[in-house]
């Protein structure tokens, strides 16, 4: 009897959140049927004609779809790999510092770019790499004529991955730094007594102790292989770099909200959501099985 | 750490200091650069002459901003949205986290709700269905679209829930014995113990709302409804999306932008973050660890 009474309050506590979830997450899921219809805003979801998988067939026939899927994949993988490695190197170097105030200063400053939006960061990146940017000014001092870095499809992916790593390396190092403090100091002492050099200590003590964390983070980022970062790409790209820099999310945005091809855009979006969902579930399972890690 | 004073060890330290100092510079320079451009002479800035110090000195762009009603309007919208969004989201998340932190023998449908939440976190209907839904609610151009349409941040609920679950069970038992109901336990016993996680979550939501530009772009039709980031985005990144753009046209567009004024606006948009950032640092570090390590 008491349990019933208490549970009543629990439902009440869940109510506001569930309403929010239903209105803005679950109701939109019903709109997925658009991907299988030739959606007509006038007729609505119930009366638009069904076309089965035609939207998907059409989508994969477009050469654009192949371009954006390849771009998304390459950019996302580049970010995942470098966002695992560079923060690790940074964390290890930081851990080797003996000057604690300098360490604190570097940490504080390195976390900062994470908190600035891509809108702000993009204006800065364009200020540096743009036609009238710092890089061209400096190149000009050496007699090199200004380059259109931001409109060069050949380097746009590198630019995306590079600026993303630059923005996030400090923040991504936080987990590594915590893992580093967990390493038993006796291991270092024993190795040093055996005559190990600094470099050998890092190689044979620090790195092996970090493998679990790196592998776990790597597995958990599996769900991001189709997430190339909409905010960043949208604020940095332009039609001249579509061939290498256009990604699924920006393509869906242009198809749907600029060209108003609702069904096609929904199909492309569903393609991404479905694959990402499967990958995340797989990654959580792997993390649970091999590292005993649970998210909830 | 073990002290050793060999030559190799010192060389390592030296190289390490240099490398980290360079990284420090790479993180600070862009902010400094933006500031320098904003107070430089307009012609010098537009010609790309500014590198590491301001050229000429002019506060003209800051004066111009003072007269820009649209800028202040969008700034105010961002503040409203951040305060409303953070408050509401935090309140709702706390309310949800408590029942979900109960064991399923005490709350039988706990796991069902948990699966719904996790499913919503991992899967979404995508941009177009979401947009049409928000539109059908009549929220276009409303501040509530900015506050609500991003959806319930499920991950934060899970963070708080994990924190509640790690609180000592005796806390709950003692309160029950004293006759406290669920609401009293949540607000008078659990919340006072949960300041670190609440601060971290409030920070995450606040930063999200302050930095979010896309909802402002697609859900607001007129520029007087834009939040700050959308306003700046429209100002700075205004390149046509047609595929017939040529490199020469791109150069012309770069020439057109008013760099000192834009930099001044970007710099002002950064200031609130720069001010609160040092105070919040300890909370986001602990917040990340709460999410990363459990039990």
Automatic annotation (TrEMBL), chain B:
<dbReference type="InterPro" id="IPR035906">
    <property type="entry name" value="MetI-like_sf"/>
</dbReference>
<feature type="transmembrane region" description="Helical">
    <location>
        <begin position="185"/>
        <end position="210"/>
    </location>
</feature>
<feature type="transmembrane region" description="Helical">
    <location>
        <begin position="143"/>
        <end position="164"/>
    </location>
</feature>
<keyword id="KW-0813">Transport</keyword>
<dbReference type="Pfam" id="PF00528">
    <property type="entry name" value="BPD_transp_1"/>
</dbReference>
<keyword id="KW-0762">Sugar transport</keyword>
<keyword id="KW-1133">Transmembrane helix</keyword>
<feature type="transmembrane region" description="Helical">
    <location>
        <begin position="263"/>
        <end position="280"/>
    </location>
</feature>
<feature type="transmembrane region" description="Helical">
    <location>
        <begin position="14"/>
        <end position="32"/>
    </location>
</feature>
<keyword id="KW-1003">Cell membrane</keyword>
<feature type="transmembrane region" description="Helical">
    <location>
        <begin position="112"/>
        <end position="131"/>
    </location>
</feature>
<dbReference type="InterPro" id="IPR000515">
    <property type="entry name" value="MetI-like"/>
</dbReference>
<comment type="similarity">
    <text>Belongs to the binding-protein-dependent transport system permease family.</text>
</comment>
<feature type="domain" description="ABC transmembrane type-1">
    <location>
        <begin position="75"/>
        <end position="280"/>
    </location>
</feature>
<feature type="transmembrane region" description="Helical">
    <location>
        <begin position="82"/>
        <end position="100"/>
    </location>
</feature>
<dbReference type="GO" id="GO:0055085">
    <property type="term" value="P:transmembrane transport"/>
</dbReference>
<feature type="transmembrane region" description="Helical">
    <location>
        <begin position="44"/>
        <end position="62"/>
    </location>
</feature>
<keyword id="KW-0812">Transmembrane</keyword>
<keyword id="KW-0472">Membrane</keyword>
<protein>
    <submittedName>
        <fullName>ABC-type sugar transport system, permease component</fullName>
    </submittedName>
</protein>
<dbReference type="GO" id="GO:0005886">
    <property type="term" value="C:plasma membrane"/>
</dbReference>
């Amino acid at each position: 009897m008491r349990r019933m009474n208490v549970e009543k309050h629990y439902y009440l506590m869940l109510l506001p959140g569930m309403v929010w979830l239903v209105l803005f997450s679950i109701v939109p899921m019903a709109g997925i049927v658009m991907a299988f219809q030739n959606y007509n805003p006038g007729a609505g979801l119930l009366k638009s004609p069904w076309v089965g998988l035609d939207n998907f067939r059409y989508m994969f026939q477009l050469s654009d779809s192949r371009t954006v899927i390849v771009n998304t994949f390459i950019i996302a993988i580049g970010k995942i790999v470098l966002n695992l490695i560079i923060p690790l190197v940074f964390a290890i170097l930081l851990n080797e510092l003996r000057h604690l105030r300098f360490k604190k200063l570097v940490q504080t400053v390195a976390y900062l770019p994470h908190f600035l939006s891509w809108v702000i960061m993009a204006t800065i990146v364009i200020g540096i790499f743009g036609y009238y940017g710092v890089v061209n000014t400096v190149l000009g001092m050496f007699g090199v004529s200004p380059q259109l870095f931001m409109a060069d499809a050949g380097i746009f992916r590198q630019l995306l991955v590079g600026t993303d790593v630059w923005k996030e390396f400090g923040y991504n190092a936080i987990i590594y730094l915590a893992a580093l403090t967990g390493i038993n100091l006796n291991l270092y002492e024993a190795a040093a007594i055996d005559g190990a050099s600094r470099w050998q200590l890092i190689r044979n003590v620090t790195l092996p102790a970090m493998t679990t964390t790196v592998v776990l983070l790597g597995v958990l980022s599996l769900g991001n292989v189709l997430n190339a970062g909409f905010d960043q790409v949208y604020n940095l790209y332009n039609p001249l770099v579509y061939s290498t820099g256009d990604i699924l999310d920006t393509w869906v945005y242009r198809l749907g909200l600029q060209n108003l091809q609702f069904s096609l855009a929904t199909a492309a979006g569903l393609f991404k959501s479905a694959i990402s969902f499967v990958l995340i579930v797989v990654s959580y399972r792997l993390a649970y099985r091999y590292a005993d890690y649970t998210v909830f | 750490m073990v002290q050793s004073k060999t030559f190799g060890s010192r060389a390592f330290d030296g190289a390490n200091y240099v490398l980290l100092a360079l990284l420090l510079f790479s993180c600070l320079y862009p902010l400094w650069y933006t500031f320098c451009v904003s107070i430089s002479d307009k012609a010098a800035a537009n010609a790309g002459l500014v590198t590491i110090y301001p050229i000429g000195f002019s506060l003209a762009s800051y004066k111009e901003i003072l007269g820009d009603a649209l800028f202040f309007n969008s700034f105010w919208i961002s503040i409203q949205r951040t305060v409303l969004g953070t408050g509401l989201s935090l309140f709702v998340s706390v309310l949800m986290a408590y029942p979900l932190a109960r064991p399923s023998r005490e709350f039988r449908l706990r796991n069902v709700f948990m699966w719904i939440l996790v499913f919503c976190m991992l899967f979404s209907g995508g941009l177009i269905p979401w947009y049409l839904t928000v539109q059908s609610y009549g929220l276009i151009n409303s501040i509530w679209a900015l506050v609500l349409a991003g959806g319930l941040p499920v991950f934060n609920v899970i963070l708080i829930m994990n924190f509640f679950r790690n609180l000592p069970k005796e806390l709950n038992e003692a309160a029950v014995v004293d006759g406290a109901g669920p609401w009293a336990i949540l607000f008078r016993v659990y919340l006072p113990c949960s300041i670190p996680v609440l601060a971290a979550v409030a920070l995450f939501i606040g930063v999200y709302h302050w930095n979010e530009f896309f909802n402002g772009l697609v859900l607001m039709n007129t520029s007087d409804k834009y939040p700050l980031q959308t306003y700046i985005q429209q100002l700075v990144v205004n390149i046509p999306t047609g595929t017939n753009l040529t490199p020469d046209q791109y150069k012309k567009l770069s020439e057109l932008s008013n760099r000192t004024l834009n930099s001044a606006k970007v710099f002002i948009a950064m200031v609130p973050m720069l001010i609160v950032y040092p105070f919040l640092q300890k909370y986001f570090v602990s917040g990340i660890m709460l999410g990363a390590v459990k039990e």
